[in-house]
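If your schedule permits, I should be very grateful for your opinion on a structural question. Thank you for your consideration; the sequence and its tokens are set out here:

===
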Amino acid sequence: MSTLVKQALAGLRLLLVLTVVTGVLYPAGVWAVSRLPGLHDNAEAVNTTLVGVAREGDGWFHLRPSAATLPASGGSNKSQVNPDYDRVVADRRTEVARREGVAEDRVPQDAVTASASGLDPHISPAYADLQVPRVARERGLSERWVRKLVAEHTSRRGLGFVGEVTVNVTALNRALTDGG
């Protein structure tokens, strides 16, 4: 048997083995681990605040809108010069202003522009602040106490200048559920 045929057969065997390992065994293993009890409840990842968990109703803080069709993650190809994009953003601004009882010019940008992945749990402090009166009213809590919770779930800039100041909505809503 020639060296070329031996090398081709070795490459083919390696291709088959790697196809089985990376295309069958690994995905099956990930799927099996995801089904273990205690990793998620009601389709919500537990013991993590790294993923945005949207809650329905006015008694919860809302995440940024999502450009993804969950459970998949992925963005939209519409840019800021697309008329459809402008219409969607304007509709979102009107809806948020109505829900929060404020003028449209008070609605922060992150309340109306989508998160590409739909997985980001963070919003701006301005958007969280806008939602405090509604959440407090719906839950029968004082605004002062809800603002304290928001402050506790607000991250600061790394080293004082790296990144943005954000509020983790997943952690904040869990704190509301747990009573603080």
In short: Residues 3-36 form one domain. The first helix runs from residue 3 to 34. The mean pLDDT is 86.
